[in-house]
Amino acid sequence: MLNIIDIECGGIGIGDDYNIDKISFYRSRFGEIEIIDVGLLDDTKVEQAIVKLGKLWNLNLIV
User: Fold this and answer.
1) Is the pTM of this model over 0.70?
2) In sequence order, what DSSP letters do the residues of 19-53 get, joined into one string?
3) Main-chain phi, psi angles of 34, to 5 degrees
4) What are phi and psi of 28, to 5 degrees?
5) Which of 29, 41, 56, 57 has the most CB within a 10 Å radius?
6) What is the dihedral angle through the alpha carbons of 61, 47, 2, 36, rounded to the nearest 10 degrees?
7) Distance separating alpha carbons of residues 7 and 30, to the nearest angstrom
8) What is the DSSP letter of 1?
9) What is the pLDDT of residues 12-58, one digit of tens each?
10) How many CA within 13 A on the CB side of residue 37?
11) 32-37 and 22-27 as β-strands: parallel, antiparallel, unpaired?
């Protein structure tokens, strides 16, 4: 999401050399790691989240 926002705001993003397939969250209190496969995320919900972040940061994004 942040990469798309960066590109929409005129940045170059992370480029084609990098591809994020999974995101990991470490829960230190419990000593657990949660792994999310980005490919399984609903594209519509990702677009909605981008729009919400844009509004939160007062950005005029076209998604």
Assistant:
1) no
2) ---EEEEEETTTTEEEEEEGGGS-HHHHHHHHHHH
3) -105, 130
4) -65, -35
5) 41
6) 180
7) 36
8) -
9) 887 767 778 899 999 999 999 999 999 999 999 988 988 888 888 88
10) 2
11) antiparallel
**Rg (Cα) of the chain, in Å, rounded?**
14
Q: Which residues contact 47 (CB under 8 A, 6 or more apart)?
A: 63
Amino acid in the structure at residue 55:
K
Distance CA 51, CA 1 (A): 10
Report the distance separating Cα 54 and Cα 62, nearest Å.
10
